């Protein structure tokens, strides 16, 4: 089980040898007592088999070491100066590499010994290393992985779902050729794909609308000229209605690629009107008239509304 967990892309021999080096049973038929397989030993095994070579390179650049050995044990010997980053080196690294030089130095002052010692005390686990005013490779890794080193100011995350901006201010989770369950050429179309896609959180789905050829001339959805099977437009609309707002109340956009004749376009409109009912947005909102200079409505204003995106008919039609 241990080999199967760790040997992805690695040789089994490396895993067995690493277990042996840790004083653990290392033959294929051996079993390891759970009490002997402590987290500390697991962590050392993990560090040897899956070394953070990127952190090793960074560590060596900070300490100006050239004798890089990415596969070596990353644990720290506090008595070996080479295995720690001095306070001076850490201050230089924080100011020259970590700090954004575009920041205002009054609001975001440069790092000094005091500030760096606060970081060391917060993330270095070995007391003997802290006393020497140093940080180990593991301490550096702990700092780099912490919220303190987040790439985004954490206070900005509080407004990551501000849904009161105009619709055009957002990236929209969108689907292309939604009806296809397989290949783009010669694939199978099914209304079930609309259910699955909407339940997965998608907010924009595509309907490629074509004229139906049967006696009833029911409009169909298919990938035109690509030998895909087709489904009835009506069936897709029913699937969309049933699943539109199960996962989210935010608006749904139906992107019509409309190839239908005028007669069958009337059927498209009739089905949308009858099956969607009040869910369908038919007129501009009173607070957001569609005039130049007026912002589009926000997702919050359009909650539980279905919008249709469709090219206008040609002027001569």
UniProtKB/TrEMBL annotation:
Catalytic activity: a 1,2-diacyl-sn-glycero-3-phospho-(1D-myo-inositol-4,5-bisphosphate) + H2O = 1D-myo-inositol 1,4,5-trisphosphate + a 1,2-diacyl-sn-glycerol + H(+)
Pfam families attached to this UniProt entry: EF-hand_like (PF09279), PI-PLC-X (PF00388), PLCB1-4-like_EFh (PF22631)
MF terms (GO), sorted A to Z: phosphatidylinositol-4,5-bisphosphate phospholipase C activity
GO terms, biological process: lipid catabolic process; phosphatidylinositol metabolic process; phosphatidylinositol-mediated signaling; release of sequestered calcium ion into cytosol
Keyword Lipid metabolism set for record: yes
Uppermost EC category: hydrolase
Keyword Lipid metabolism: yes
Residue stretches making up the Phosphatidylinositol-specific phospholipase C X domain: 161-311
Protein name: Phosphoinositide phospholipase C
Taxonomic source organism: Hirondellea gigas
